[in-house]
Amino acid sequence: MKTVKPMEYDLMLDERRSEIEGIMRRFMPEEEGETATVKEAMNYSFSSGSKRIRSMLMLETYRLFGGTDMELIGPFMAAIEMIHTYSLVHDDLPCMDNDDYRRGKKTAHVVYGEAMALLSGDALLNYAFETAIGACKAAEGKSADASEALTAYRRIMRALGILAEKAGINGMIGGQVMDMETDESNISLDRLNTMYNLKTGALIEASMMVGAILAGAVDEDIERIRTISADIGLAFQIRDDILDVTGSTQELGKPAHSDEKNRKITYAALLGVDKAGEEVDKLSRRAVREYEEFAYNNDFLKELILRLISRKK
Amino acid sequence: MKTVKPMEYDLMLDERRSEIEGIMRRFMPEEEGETATVKEAMNYSFSSGSKRIRSMLMLETYRLFGGTDMELIGPFMAAIEMIHTYSLVHDDLPCMDNDDYRRGKKTAHVVYGEAMALLSGDALLNYAFETAIGACKAAEGKSADASEALTAYRRIMRALGILAEKAGINGMIGGQVMDMETDESNISLDRLNTMYNLKTGALIEASMMVGAILAGAVDEDIERIRTISADIGLAFQIRDDILDVTGSTQELGKPAHSDEKNRKITYAALLGVDKAGEEVDKLSRRAVREYEEFAYNNDFLKELILRLISRKK
What we know:
The structure is a homodimer. Chain A has helices spanning 6-27, 36-46, 53-64, 70-92, 108-112, 114-133, 135-142, 146-167, 172-181, 189-214, 219-246, 249-252, 258-261, 267-271, 273-291, 299-310, and strands at 101-102, 105-106. Chain A is mainly α. A two-stranded antiparallel ribbon of chain A has the order 1-2. In chain A, a hairpin with a 2-residue loop joins strand 1 and strand 2 (105-106). The longest helix of chain A is centred in the C-terminal third of the chain and has 28 residues, at 219-246. Chains A and B meet through helix 2, helix 6, helix 8, helix 9 and helix 10 of A and helix 2, helix 6, helix 8, helix 9 and helix 10 of B.
């Protein structure tokens, strides 16, 4: 399998980032009318320096399986980032983590007040579905014959189902609830695995599965994408734990050692940094091995996966 | 046009309420697994003595246009009530209205704490879409031929679009934002009309429009349903204002005169109770006149509309 050279990858990454930001801008609400404030608050959080990892994984998985229709994948890319953003806005609220800063910017409730931040989070979640549902326009416009249209609708409905499931009580929200309820009395490696799978893994799974589904991948490939993305999600979160211990505040762009300070039970705390690192390596190797089973390839996606897991910040 | 006799209507209402509660129960999440608490919190609020007006309007409008498939309409009925419920859970939070009681029961944040109440609201909104998207299973299972399946998918996607739009920034959430930002400096009858249309009207519109769309009503009929439901929603909210002034706490089952106490600017406060009452009558007459233009009839729905507007509590 070909690999992408470091410099080449960085160029491709920049290119893709600006492509994705362009797509995000298309789907952001116009700040106009009687309800301009909430739209402003939505856009404030939505454009707060995210790395757009989820939408990038979605787009590249879509391309891996030959997807080319930006009118179809674009709304789902925006939707997954909106869901990720709303979860951060609500997470930062005083009744949750009470964080005043995120990615170096004041959080929504500091700027707009708690009530407006709450509503802007609700609005982002709702708008995510509104936007993704809008993908059916693309399907309808393109398909001259009924069986093509039917195929498109089926894929969109299936993608919507995955998006909703992975964001909900059996996905991300479930993980947040487990996080809230985890303490020294009930912690175990099993529990931590389930919690990470839900809290972080679920949206990564949704990203890649939606990409595969919309591109028309066969069930076997969609299932393989699911196991790969679950490994990536888990490795990604354990890497986060490790960086919190080993990184500096400057490197991370957010306070280091915050887990220890908040007495958070993490993989690194439970197993130690070395063992946690071994786990990341294991997951990473497994994900790549599975990826190489595909009859398709997307060099950029493969490199993206490797870098996400081995990232230093 | 036939009318329903009072006693007959009450019997029919009871019958329909228990039918609807049965449907709601089918779609409530099982309180099991690692995330049982949030499911319990969702169900606590979801089964807190709602009158299920929105799902009832949806079902009866569906029946007005000949709809009979409960596997198709059921998920959407549950979804609209979940959306209504989440909006109340978030509305009651300390950073919003800070209400400790609703319908005589402690609010979610009093019972489960603020963080869990917030997450349970998010979960209800997400689960509403998860549930409604699940309606496609019904469509798929039933339609042997492709063109029937395509028609079903188109209706479901259109209904999902209306649901998301009317619940979002250009619907209910938009109305909540306007409510928050309305004070003596910017109040006008125009602003109040827009605010009521969004805050209360939008979900009533969604209820009836989704019923019509899923039953396969023609565009002209869907549009007529939209204007009727907008009138009903506005009349319903103005009636609420009037009852707050004229009703007793005992009659209402919630504190009377709360608008005045909270210095809320309402229709009744702006126009006086009598003029507000005239407005309700006008809207009511217009809604019924429009309703009578249909080539179809559903006696129960007509009576339901009249009673909603003239209700005493």
